[in-house]
């Protein structure tokens, strides 16, 4: 027993010491020579692992940017000050999945425990960006003085527009797309703010609502142990239900990631909303959903992938098989940079401690399988098709009616590949806004997270070039809708869905003509 207690105490104090040392390093400036080595390290890794590095920027231009950055590194910089210089260069590569990660302070176990019994600060809201302005889009907890439509003017006496100006160079999209930026900045600016100023207990805001300017303190609210247990019990109750599993209940948003509804009394119109292609129980959801559609008089399917940032490639391939009536190949062969590129993939990343030992045992088999999966064709290295993305047959319950797809600038990655393929095959009518992800493919799939040796900044690099099997547009843009409808700020804040309304009206017009 004494040995166990001693071990626990040693583990506790070593953890505290490592946290302290890490946080101290964030404040220690790094010599210019070492920063330049980090710049070279990042570029070398990009050239070695990224399968289409010069897709949207020429080698000459990118060489110049990295070389120019090194000429500015003449004095020591703290890690995150260096981040602010290197991140915009990474952003200029114009690959939406590619971004440098700022360093954040680590927390002790006690601090983590305390946060478990506190509600968030800025994370309790959803925001919308309009130009250089930040507005509250949603306030689900109905916190006073933060009505939907409230504009954030200042945070810690810093102009909101100045924060956006500072953080905007850190974000990017695929290619020449410009619709993605405002959505991803609305999601990420609170995390950039937290990385810069730490996890705060409260923050002073200056806000404006209906022309009235107010100053207030936004504070973390504490929750009792009983309240937390009650919330966890309620969440478990939902997630363990059949609907909770099949519709993929999201414990963070407290909503289902996928859903099927029938907005008209005659059930001739089906509306399928997919918030993220998580892959969780998706096979069962689509099997049940399209079986239902086959047994109903549904003639129209509205597939809504707005604000869907992507996810499982397998899921969208499976979904596509329910939307077509002929054999198909969903994507082209996946390209990598070399035979050993996939050995750099983050094999253990995101894995729970319980599964890690089993994954370690299985690693030799993974290594052999990976080694045998690469083929060389015309000086290109391709992953051999293992059957998942080979020529496929449509599902027997495939939908035969008319398909509308709702898209916007926050339809990204897998949520761009699917509408790209549907539009390329003339199988769907797209309504909304140009997608944030590129029409002609993306670099994602598996990632290799490279840690810069001196600053310790992390750079996750996509290893797989994934392209839909279509005739490419070569526009370097997103998937463009057949009909463009972009809601105004007021329509968004008032929860008016003008894009869905247009589709419903178009369906009614078509019904009258039949």
From TrEMBL:
Residues 231-486 form the Tail specific protease domain. It comes from the Bacteria. One of its GO terms (cellular component) is outer membrane-bounded periplasmic space. Gene3D superfamilies: 2-enoyl-CoA Hydratase, Chain A, domain 1. GO terms for molecular function: endopeptidase activity; serine-type peptidase activity. Pfam families: Peptidase_S41. SUPFAM superfamilies: ClpP/crotonase. One of its GO terms (biological process) is proteolysis. This is Peptidase family S41.
């Amino acid at each position: 027993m004494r040995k166990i207690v001693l071990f626990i105490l040693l583990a506790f104090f070593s953890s505290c010491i490592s946290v302290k040392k890490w946080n101290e390093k964030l404040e220690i400036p790094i010599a210019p020579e070492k920063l330049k080595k980090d710049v070279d390290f990042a570029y070398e890794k990009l050239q070695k692992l990224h399968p289409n590095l010069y897709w949207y920027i020429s080698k000459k231009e990118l060489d110049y940017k990295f070389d120019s950055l090194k000429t500015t590194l003449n004095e020591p910089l703290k890690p995150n000050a260096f981040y602010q210089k290197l991140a915009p260069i990474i952003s200029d590569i114009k690959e939406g999945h590619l971004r440098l990660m700022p360093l954040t302070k680590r927390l002790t176990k006690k601090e983590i425990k305390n946060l478990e019994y506190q509600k968030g600060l800025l994370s309790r809201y959803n925001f919308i960006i309009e130009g250089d302005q930040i507005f509250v889009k949603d306030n689900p907890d109905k916190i006073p003085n933060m009505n939907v439509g409230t504009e954030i003017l200042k945070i810690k006496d810093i102009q909101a527009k100045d924060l956006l100006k500072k953080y905007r160079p850190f974000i990017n999209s695929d290619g020449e797309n410009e619709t993605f930026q405002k959505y991803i900045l609305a999601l990420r600016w609170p995390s950039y703010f937290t990385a810069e100023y730490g996890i705060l207990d409260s923050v002073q805001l200056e806000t404006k609502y209906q022309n009235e300017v107010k100053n207030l303190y936004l504070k973390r609210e504490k929750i009792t142990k009983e309240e937390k247990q009650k919330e966890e019990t309620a969440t478990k109750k939902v997630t363990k239900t059949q609907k909770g599993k099949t519709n993929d209940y999201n414990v963070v948003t407290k909503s289902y990631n996928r859903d099927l509804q029938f907005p008209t009394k005659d059930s001739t119109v089906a509306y399928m909303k997919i918030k993220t292609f998580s892959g969780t129980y998706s096979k069962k959801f689509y099997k049940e959903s399209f079986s239902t559609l086959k047994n109903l008089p549904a003639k129209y399917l509205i597939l809504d992938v707005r604000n869907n940032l992507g996810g499982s490639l397998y899921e969208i391939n499976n979904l596509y098989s329910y939307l077509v009536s002929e054999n198909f190949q969903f994507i082209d062969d996946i390209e990598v940079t070399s035979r050993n590129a996939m050995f750099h993939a983050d094999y253990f990343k995101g894995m729970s401690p319980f599964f890690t030992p089993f994954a370690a045992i299985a690693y030799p088999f993974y290594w052999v399988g990976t080694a045998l999966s690469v083929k060389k064709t015309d000086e290109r290295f391709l992953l051999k098709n293992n059957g998942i993305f080979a020529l496929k047959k449509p599902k027997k319950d495939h939908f035969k009616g008319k398909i509308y797809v709702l898209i916007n600038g926050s339809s990204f990655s897998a949520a761009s590949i699917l509408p790209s393929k549907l539009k390329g095959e003339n199988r769907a009518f797209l309504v909304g806004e140009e997608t944030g992800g590129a029409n002609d493919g993306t670099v994602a799939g598996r990632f290799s997270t490279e840690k810069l040796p001196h600053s310790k900044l992390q750079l996750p690099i996509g290893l797989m070039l994934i392209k839909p099997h279509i005739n490419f547009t070569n526009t370097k843009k997103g998937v463009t809708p057949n009909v463009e409808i972009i809601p105004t700020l007021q329509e968004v804040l008032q929860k008016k869905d003008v894009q869905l309304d247009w589709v419903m009206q178009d369906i009614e017009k078509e019904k009258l003509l039949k």
